[in-house]
User: Which sequence fits this backbone?
């Protein structure tokens, strides 16, 4: 689920709220003083990656530019 950033106009606390994308526009309230918070716009963070049980993806091997090929059994330029 994506994380959305909010800032409390009363105390200045910045916090994140995790919610489905279709609820992104719902109001959020400061966990310290319950003031209605303002959305801070920026990139949306999502939980994807190894920290959620996904396997590590090995890096790609270095590219070697030896021209192009015309298919199996053909020569390169």
Assistant:
């Amino acid at each position: 689920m994506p994380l959305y950033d909010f800032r409390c106009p009363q105390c200045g606390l910045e916090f994140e709220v995790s919610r489905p994308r279709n609820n992104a526009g719902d109001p959020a309230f400061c966990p310290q003083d319950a003031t209605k918070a303002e959305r801070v716009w920026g990139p949306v963070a999502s939980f994807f990656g190894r920290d959620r049980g996904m396997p590590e993806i090995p890096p790609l091997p270095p590219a070697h530019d030896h021209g192009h090929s015309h298919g199996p059994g053909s020569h390169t330029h």
